[in-house]
Structure formats: structure tokens, C-alpha cells
């Protein structure tokens, strides 16, 4: 619903140098500039207008906002601009889908013939029907865990085959392929074309997704579409498509619209790219950067190896410069002299000990000989044994007729006792 605060005043005189329809003929046409001036003068009489509707486009450029607003009951839309100075006074959370009322003033640019509205004030009325439905779906899918990071599949570092779902001969296809092939010329694509807006968007995109997901050679799938009116991006917030993406076994990248566009596909996909060009940069490594990284790593490895080898050579030279290694025979000579002295001392000590032990042995031998019965026998004494080996110590032991074994200095002989003899 649109309401006006001011309206043109009927019968008000047109601005100077304006042109009336009956003042121009085929023979005397007016100029384009004069016609534009007349239109601008007429529009300027409208003044400001309060209008109610739903924001369908919101693009920020150098601090200014360029957007569109649609009627809540019909498809009628208007374009509007918000200058940076005005934007500072507006609510900071204004976004696509918001139900708002705005004070606008018509602008007509005479140089280009473009018609737009400048916004001087804008405030929320409530969520638009479209945003309200999306928010309910967003809350539902979030509660089911479809937005959880834990369920998102990692994107391969270097996909050999990229499945690309986009409009046939679209700018999005050119952007993805061109940027990907510039970064890695050997990358290959499996194309699956689908309508990117309208009633055919969702079923065709789901069909293309299932076909690429069933192809085992496809490493990652990109769903790409260029920018446009948010109304045209609604298919990428459709619940059927979102659940198909969540069920896919192949990683899916969402590359829909521009940076400010945010369909629900961005939340369900395994990776969100702000634009189709950004998608190519996010999933394909730059061969120049990789070669530079490899060259840097090789340079660092060469430097580390050179430093290590140089350090080891310096240590080896330091060891070799020591006297013991510069003339190793000097150590042997010094040790040999010390060893000779030790051997000489050992021999002298051993000789002295042998002589002392020899003298001790001679002394013991002499003492033993002195105490030995053999020495006594050698001096003429004898030892008498009975037949049972008992030494005769008492003459009474040798009764008459008893056999006796007599041992002398050299040998023994047998005798028979004649009995004890009285001592004189």
C-alpha cells in the first residue's frame, strides 16, 4: 500500500522554458534536453512521499545505498537511493526482506533520463512476508543441525574435477571457469546446466546436483549464480534444494549473487563463497603461489642443509686442528715411554719379590729338613714298627717273638724281638 503526503497542484504553471505537448509538432519538435527539463520540473512539484513496502534489494557502494522496494500486495517496485549522510541517521539493521516505511522524493536525471527516489527517512514496520518465511525455515533447519560446522565436509586441496551447476552461457560460468583455469590450468569441469531463477530453478538444480553427486570422478560441486534482485534468488533458499545439498556425499560450494546476498544455501553448503569468482579462488589453489611456496621451501631446505654441513665441517676442522689429531703418533710415543717405565718397574718389583720368596723357601726347606725324621734317621737312629704300624715307644711292646719292622736312614728291614733288655 502506498500513501502520498503531497500531490501535484492542478493548474500550477509549468517551470520556465518548459514545453507543452501542443507546443511541439513534427515540423517544430522540441529538444531532448528541454523535454527532460520539463519532466524534471513537473516531478519536482510532487514533494516528498511516504511509502510502505518491502526491501528487495540493498547494495552499498562507497557508503551510499542503492536498492529496490516492492509493494506488499503486487509486484510493483521502485528504485531508491540513500546517501551516506542520510544513512547515518537510519537504523543500522535495515536489510533485504524488511517491512519498512520510507519518506522518498522523486529524482529525475535530465542527462540520462533516469528516474529514482531519494530516501530521507526509513524505519521498520515489521518483517516482510518473505523474510518471515525464510527466518522460520532458517530456525527449523538450524534446530535440525543442518547448519552445524561438524557436519560440513572438507573441500579437497586440489580438486581434479569440479562439478559446476549454473545457467548455460552465464557470466557465473565464465567467472568460475576463467578464474579456476587461470589459477590451475589442468583443472577440469563437469558442467550441469539448470535454470537459476523461476519455477524450474529448484527441480533442475536438484537434478543436476544428484547427477554430479553420483559421478565418482567429481571432487567438489559448485552451485553458482550471478547477482540480481533478491526475488530471483529465492530458489536457493528452497527447503527441497537445501535438504538435497545436506544429503549430498560430495562437498558443495555455494556461490550465489554478490557479497550482500545471503540465501539459506550459504548456511547449508559446506563452503560459502561470496561470488562465483570467489568460489574459484577458494577451491582451486594458485599454481604461481604453490610454485613460489615450493621454491621457498626448497630454498629454506638448501640453506638449512648448507648451514648444517658447514657447521659439521667447521667442527671437524676444529677437531682435526687439535694436537692429538694433528700428530696422533705423539700421543702413542708419550704413552709408550710411560708404558716402558711401568713395565720396567713391574719387572724390578717381580724380580725382588721372586728373590725374597726364594730365600724364604730355602729357609723353610732348611727348617723342614731340621725337623724331619729323615734327618734324625740319617744320624744313625732307627724307628721300630709293629706289624700293625704302631711305633714302638716302650720296650714292653716288643715281647719275645714279636715281628718288628725297623726303619733306618736308608730303607727298612724286618726283625724279630728277643724281648725287652734291661738297662745297664
From TrEMBL:
It is an enzyme of class 3 (hydrolase). Its main location: cytoplasm. Residues 1-29 are annotated as: Disordered. Keywords: Cytoplasm, Exonuclease, Hydrolase, Nuclease. GO terms for molecular function: exodeoxyribonuclease VII activity. Residues 31-123 form the OB-fold nucleic acid binding domain. The keyword Cytoplasm applies. InterPro entries: Exonuc_VII_L, Exonuc_VII_lsu_C, OB-fold_nuc-bd_dom. Residues 146-364 form the Exonuclease VII large subunit C-terminal domain. The keyword Hydrolase applies. Its EC number is 3.1.11.6. It catalyses: Exonucleolytic cleavage in either 5'- to 3'- or 3'- to 5'-direction to yield nucleoside 5'-phosphates. It is found in: Cytoplasm. Heterooligomer composed of large and small subunits. Belongs to the XseA family. Bidirectionally degrades single-stranded DNA into large acid-insoluble oligonucleotides, which are then degraded further into small acid-soluble oligonucleotides. HAMAP family: Exonuc_7_L. This is Exodeoxyribonuclease 7 large subunit. It comes from Microbacterium terregens.
